[in-house]
C-alpha cells in the first residue's frame, strides 16, 4: 500500500522523486501548475480528499479553484500546463509533466483515493493517475 502524508511523506521527498524520475528542473513550479489544473477539473470534495494524503505544500494548488469543476479533456489539460509553464502550449511537454507529477503523487496515496480521482476524469486522463 502507498504511504500517505500521515506516514510521513515530506514535500522535499516528493520534489526529489519528481526531479529524479522526470528530469524536470523546476519541480516545485511544475507540480504547482499541474495540481492547480487538476484541482480545477475535479468535483466536490475530491481536491481536498486528495490533498489530505499529500504534504501541506501541495494542498493549496489542488484546492485553489472554487466553484464548479471545469469540463475539459486531456488535450486541453496538457496545453494549459505547457502554456502556463511558458512552453507555448506544446501538449507533448504538458503531457510529460502531468504524467511525471501525477505518477509521483500516485506512489504516495491510497489506491482508493486514486480510484476516486480516476472516476472523475475522462479516459485520456486516467492513465496519468497511476504509479
TrEMBL record:
InterPro entries: DUF2267, DUF2267_sf. It comes from the Bacteria. Gene3D superfamilies: Uncharacterized conserved protein DUF2267. Pfam families: DUF2267 (PF10025). This is DUF2267 domain-containing protein. The lineage of its organism: Bacteria, Bacillati, Actinomycetota, Actinomycetes, Pseudonocardiales.
Amino acid at each position: 500500500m502507498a504511504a500517505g502524508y500521515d506516514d510521513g511523506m515530506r514535500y522535499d521527498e516528493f520534489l526529489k522523486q519528481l526531479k529524479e524520475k522526470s528530469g524536470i528542473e523546476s519541480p516545485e513550479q511544475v507540480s504547482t501548475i499541474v495540481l492547480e489544473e487538476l484541482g480545477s477539473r475535479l468535483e466536490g470534495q475530491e481536491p481536498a480528499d486528495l490533498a489530505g494524503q499529500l504534504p501541506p505544500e501541495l494542498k493549496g494548488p489542488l484546492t485553489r479553484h472554487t466553484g464548479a469543476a471545469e469540463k475539459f479533456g486531456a488535450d486541453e489539460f496538457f496545453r494549459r500546463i505547457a502554456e502556463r509553464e511558458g512552453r507555448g502550449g506544446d501538449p507533448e511537454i504538458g503531457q510529460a509533466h502531468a504524467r511525471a507529477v501525477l505518477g509521483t503523487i500516485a506512489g504516495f496515496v491510497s489506491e482508493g483515493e486514486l480510484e476516486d480521482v480516476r472516476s472523475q476524469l475522462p479516459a485520456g486522463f486516467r492513465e496519468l493517475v497511476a504509479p
